[in-house]
Amino acid sequence: xxxxxxxxxxxxxxxxxxxxxxxxxxxxxxxxxxxxxxxxxxxxxxxxxxxxxxxxxxxxxxxxxxxxxxxxxxxxxxxxxxxxxxxxxxxxxxxxxxxxxxxxxxxxxxxxxxxxxxxxxxxxxxxxxxxxxxxxxxxxxxxxxxxxxxxxxxxxxxxxxxxxxxxxxxxxxxxxxxxxxxxxxxxxxxxxxxxxxxxxxxxxxxxxxxxxxxxxxxxxxxxxxxxxxxxxxxxxxxxxxxxxxxxxxxxxxxxxxxxxxxxxxxxxxxxxxxxxxxxxxxxxxxxxxxxxxxxxxxxxxxxxxxxxxxxxxxxxxxxxxxxxxxxxxxxxxxxxxxxxxxxxxxxxxxxxxxxxxxxxxxxxxxxxxxxxxxxxxxxxxxxxxxxxxxxxxxxxxxxxxxxxxxxxxxxxxxxxxxxxxxxxxxxxxxxxxxxxxxxxxxxxxxxxxxxxxxxxxxxxxxxxxxxx
Length: 468
Hints:
single chain; 468 residues; alpha/beta; FAD/NAD(P)-binding domain; Enolase-like, domain 1; 3 domains; seven-stranded mixed sheet; five-stranded parallel sheet; 31% helix; 24% strand; globular
């Protein structure tokens, strides 16, 4: 057994782990980076980048189908599934290559391959070859897809989003379970690429939306395009000779039977903190076995161990993982002088059509506060109608006393860009009046945001910019 000693050990080389390594090194610490799997972040390998490649292909096909509405005649697009997936895999591998190169740029003496497990508070065993004594430790082990045991009846036809991006060709049909971010993005994209899609949910979830009006609108929009049942009553799943048979009771209380090529589980991810030997430490954990972490410092309890990225189980987004990694790495380098890090305003985007974005506090989080809600529909918004993207709603939530922007939920065109504008305003603690004082060009979709802000302003007793 090779014995090693280091100031800081970082477990995981994803977005959080790499950020933690760099920050700890910048803080003057000796750092050892440990990886038990393949190099390359979740985002690059199986997340944000390959999914957007599939979505881009779907958008191209959809644009052709929409062309006649502009007076541009076009034939029904022919989808070459093998070509679509070849580009997805090729570009995915290119993105992964960039990440792998950045890891290989790290001195080899700072890298160790193998699965890490705690032997005690300060000792990690890596594979069967190394034992590390570390003054401080950062856990940045990411997350893995999880699914109900019932799905295992699909046997080898049970897949997760990781598997989709290794397809050589598009299948004829897929049953997608989980209309969250991943399920909605992949479900709609596959549908627009000619795959017969059935999307099932169990609790009314529609992406990250919590505002009832937006949830109803989004559900109706998606349901009009492809099969979506957000309160599905699935009674049976079984492997057949050709694929997977799914039986369910429809909203009219009729039992339906379908057969699909694959069952795609998009039912969430679980933090990769189990199997690390945390039971061999005195780290505080909750009833689920999750480490109790301070999201301001990323410190577990008052210990020398820090947690960052998807392994926290809270904000599974690349920019959040990188921020958490930096905070964890900085505090690990300077422990015990632990300081809160700067956290950005929450921002999430779902790349469906229309897109979904959430900023700051959600409607659900604000339901006990006194707020005003500024609203706009994109159905008659000028630029949206010009582009035939006139579908969706935007709600902004402001403090009823001060007019300060507290959050927003969007289902509409260019939500990714509107979300960024609102996130910047939220982080700057702007009031509705401050935002209305900003320039708005004409004609742009952002004028819809101005309409919502004016609506909020009208509900405030003292908006501060009556002529906006």
